[in-house]
Amino acid sequence: MALRKLAVTVCGLLTIAVLLPPAAARADQFSEAVAHSFSSADITAQTPFLVGSLDLFDPSLGTLTSVQLTFVLDPPTSWVGTSDSLRFDVRTGEPALDFIFDLTPGLYLSSITHTHTFSQLDTQNFIGHPPFMAKTAMGVELIPLGSPGTFSSFLVGELMYTFTPAAAVPGPIVGTGLPGLILACSILLVLARRRHQIA
After folding, report:
1. How far apart are alpha carbons 18 and 157 in whole angstroms?
2. Does residue 22 belong to any structural domain of this protein?
3. pLDDT digit string, tens, across residues 65-121
4. Looking at residue 83, what is its pLDDT?
5. 8 Å CB contact between 147 and 83
6. Is residue 160, in this structure, part of any structural domain at all?
7. Average pLDDT, integer, range 42-55
8. Has residue 43 been placed in a domain?
9. 159: which of 70, 93, 146, 173 lies 20 to 30 Å off by Cα?
10. CA distances (Å), 36 to each of 33, 59, 102, 135, in order?
11. Which domain holds residue 126?
12. Smallest Cα–Cα separation from 66: which of 161, 166, 164?
């Protein structure tokens, strides 16, 4: 009787394990960074500064869900010009994905941070095509807009990728799945019946 109860319990637990939905996919992140030092740089409108390059997202890691670009101007930062503000157009890659931020004239002794989250449509442009296609990285440019002047700062740019990791696909295991469950339950019930007959 005890073995029969055990068989029924095991069958019930196996059935629940088979019918339970898979665990929800977790989000993961990693970042790419570039840095560039401006030391009393002469600013001319529409003359781009190449800050560096950033690796595109490798699609084999999973599904890209969000891209956030952050620029930090580390102190001391100074802007001396004839215009009211220095307008930077931060441009990444091809097609040109950009956002604009302004810097008013003055000397700054604390960090200045500008963050931009790209739309879901633009996010797709950050996906690379390794290993057979050349598009695995994108250049990042800082393009000043407006009047000329002199700019000094240490700029750090960070691209944050948020993605859902690709699910690991286990190899086939003999005897698993619904047929294996039915077979295991049948064997346990037969053993319980035989034990009952002998007793």
Report:
1. 47
2. no
3. 999 989 899 999 998 887 678 888 888 877 778 888 888 889 999 999 999 898 888
4. 67
5. yes
6. yes
7. 81
8. yes
9. 146
10. 11, 28, 18, 23
11. 28-165
12. 161
